[in-house]
Design goal:
alpha/beta
Length: 122
Amino acid sequence: MKYGFVLLALIIIGYIVYKAMRPKNIKSIDGDTAKALYNSGATIVDVRTQSEYKSGHIPGSINIPVGSPIPDPKLPGKKDAPIIVYCRSGSRALAFEKALLKEGYSNVYHLGSISKWKGDLK
């Protein structure tokens, strides 16, 4: 029982730290919102490796593996254009989103995990 309480406390503290470190101007979205934004012209960026991308990706997404130089010619020229970012679990997406913000992109959306997408993969 004592260890359960300690584990719960650590989980809560970890969540609070995670929320505090996340930039406020990155908007978390669900799969339905991502699809609506994409249908309205948003760019979807898959930041997984090329082999992960080739194994299945959101149709219409572009592949820019995390760690690639930004700006990338595949990104929209306008820095206020909506950009949706995803990876396998969400952590690489968050790193890429922070890099986008640092380069002046202002309309960044965090889908996080590819599993949140509502629809078929290509």
